Amino acid sequence: MRFTRMRRCAGMVAVLLLAGCGSVDDQGGSGVERAGTWTRLPASPLSARHDASGVWVAGRFVIVGGWSTPMCPPTADCASSGPAWRDGAGFDPAAGTWTRTAQAPVPISGSNVVAVADRMYLQTPDLGREDSPVSFVSYDPERDVWSTHPIPPDTGGALVAAGDVVLSISGSAEGGPAADAVFDPRTNAWKELPGDPLAPSFDRAGVWVDGSLLLTAKDLVSNPGAETPTVVRLARLDGFTRWTALPDSTIVGSGPIAVGSHTVWPMLESADGGAIGNWGRSYDLGGIFDLPSGEWQSLPRPPRTSQVPAGNAVVGGRILVGGHLLDPVTRRWIKVPELPGQERASVTMIGSPEVLLVWGGGTTDEPSANLSTGYLLRPR
User: Fold this and answer.
1) For residue 246, what is the enclosing H or E element?
2) What do you get for the CA distance between the two ends of the chain, in Å?
3) Residues 6+ apart with CB under 8 A from 6
4) Is 156:168 a contact under the CB 8 Å cutoff?
5) What is the pLDDT of residues 273-297, one digit of tens each?
6) All domains of the chain in start order, with CATH
7) Which is it for strands 242-246 and 318-321: parallel, antiparallel or unpaired?
8) CA angle 180-184-114, nearest 5°?
9) pLDDT digits 0-9 by tens, 237-266
């Protein structure tokens, strides 16, 4: 496999298993601004842990659950000796104070969490454990009350905040037709969405942009990426009833995130198919799509590599890409300073309209240790 600039890409999706990958020029583009400085959070009431769930909701950061067991190394498949935590806490950045939350009804972990109508909605992962069932729950921070709801048709789907409802988008149709659905809090029930024009597909994801669902997916074919690139395809769902197929992209990445009217695939590498089944040229993994105009743009050259923990939080119309904040409208970067203290991973990272929060996680030292400290960054 050939790697551009000799930089190895980790965690590639199925389409890139045979692909070469590399980084864009990281010397920094023009118009790079600098963010402010990290401010240490006051002591948290939560114990040290990694992979806690968190979201910005009702004017505060809410962090729940997570694991106090040793953090799993990046290339290992680890099993915990016990269930995740159920306790949580909210942090009000205006007051600078923490407040404990009520105990969750089930063990909480993972990043499948969204905020809708001042409520936190969260789906717990399938860990294959009797003490950690797949659950779909919500938390009302104003009343400090948890509620349990019916699980979606596809328990492996990703949650998407869609106005005043919650969507569950299946990741793949490899096991059968995708079972996308919408949850209405008023009826406490799920309703399946109509079949999409991209089916059958894999590497499926959804974002909510300008009052519509934008579905991104790749064709479900034998040996994807073996001879030709499997590019991202798009379709738009209006009113949860009418699909419109959009022009295909020329990118091959994953993990789209909505930022205003733009959708960003926050991956800075490229792929060319490798020595076997080479595609003839490199294709970007990341890019920017403007739904109103239907135009695509490439990601601009980023500032130098950052040691900020991995995450793609959105802060006031800017998205964290490769450790720095990018405005997808102006394509200008805000360079984020290094996070103080030890290098950490599996953190809880949450963006708000004005502030970025990083909390907990584990150190990458050997042996690793969990952390209960956190920091705030307020970009200029």
Assistant:
1) strand 242-246
2) 42
3) 22
4) no
5) 988 889 999 999 999 999 999 999 9
6) 14-377 (2.120.10.80)
7) unpaired
8) 70
9) 999 999 999 999 999 999 999 999 999 999
